Description:
Elements: H1 5-10, E1 18-21, E2 26-30, E3 36-44, E4 47-51
Antiparallel strand pairs: 1-2, 2-3, 3-4
Amino acid sequence: MPLTDTAIKKAKPEAKQRKLYDERGLFLLISPKGGKWWRFKYLFWRQGKATIPRHLPRRKPERRTRTAG
């Protein structure tokens, strides 16, 4: 079941790091200090790895409109 925006906002830090799993290897790592980071878990040559998806801007993307011509 995918994570919802509400579940992510309500997630509180605990004494240890914890993971909230989304789908297909994507999870949200919550640190004890309150930091939240997205990670992607995958297998490479039968060894588990986790990588950081590219950083996305915090601002909303601008709407593009079609121009005539």
